[in-house]
């Protein structure tokens, strides 16, 4: 009995070391928080949080955004300078400034009562739906890059390379749209398929290197992003490659009209078939992750690679497949932009879609339909922020701050629970990453 008792701590240490070598998170002390490892962060994201946390996070972000709106309005600041003897005027000026800004944000993203009233008196019906069209247009690439990040999350990996995968898809779609002649519909479908393949190849490179060498996917994707940035710059400035004729700027030729996706919903930018592609991709991704053997393997590897390997799952193959699918989704995002807008591919076309996809996946709790809703929210903020800035003079950066705050509060539920004195739920979850004092 004494020999067994003496061997117990040593065996436990060996087991813990073995778990760490195999990539599993070390066991947390009894009653304590889980160690803050990469895998624990991903599990916290995918486990999700109650809907009330998301709603309250949005409310708090709007309140803080209102403070920033007031701070950027000189009229309100002058009113507050006389708060001591005219408090009513200061409060009224504050309400007018914040309500005007958020009203413009809503009208630019959802609908404007003025356009509805005008439609009943012979006005344009398209103008009524234009804000929703703009929201869907802005949300489309975000949904697809968010799905790209989500697939990697489910397999226990970080995909920081959606930007590079986006470029891979954009290059193939542009080449097919410029240099290949095909009939109507067939040409557009071929370009979409080419974008999917182009992004998938870039994602496959990351998964293959990780599977063969064990290199961390974050390093691989970041470095490959820079490779793709420079490749895009080279191709767009080479007359023998993708540079438009008689141009000195880094710009590709216009795609053939047959290669463009159909659009509708008022003056440009317009929502089009790209939004339907994004919704269909979300449906397929949801089915893949929750209803198929592949999705089960992704979840098993994401939870514990060592346990999945013991169950006979090829972890390396899952890594490759997950990044291949993630790259394909990012490539589809490129197709919706390259084929869905009038201007050709430039060096700045990839924008911040790849990195915004990370925040969309975080807000959507790495769930496909949650990503769709998060993408629509961010699309509404982007679309409405343009009108807000034009109508009220509020800096558009306020919208970026609001988006960042929403993600911050959703990703850290203990902050919301602390602010609103909410009781923390039992069991594991995102709150398990925080000290006990924050979760009650």
Q: Could you explain the architecture of this structure?
A:
With about 450 residues, the protein is an all-alpha fold. The protein has a domain of about 230 residues. The N terminus and C terminus are likely disordered.
Write a brief caption for the model.
This protein is mainly alpha-helical. 70% of the residues lie in helices and 1% in strands.
Q: Tell me the total number of β-strands.
A: 2
Q: Could you say which structural class the secondary elements and strand pairing correspond to?
A: mainly alpha
Spatially, the strands of the biggest sheet line up as 1-2
Q: Give the overall shape.
A: globular
Intertermini distance: 41 Å
- The SSE order reads HHHHHHHHHHEEHHHHHHHHH
What fraction, in percent, of the residue positions are helical?
55-70%
Instruction: Enumerate how many helices there are, as a single number.
Output: 19
Average pLDDT taken over every residue = 83
Give start-end ranges of low-pLDDT stretches. Answer: 1-25, 27-31, 427-440
Question: Which key phrases capture this entry?
Answer:
two-stranded antiparallel sheet; 440 residues; mainly alpha
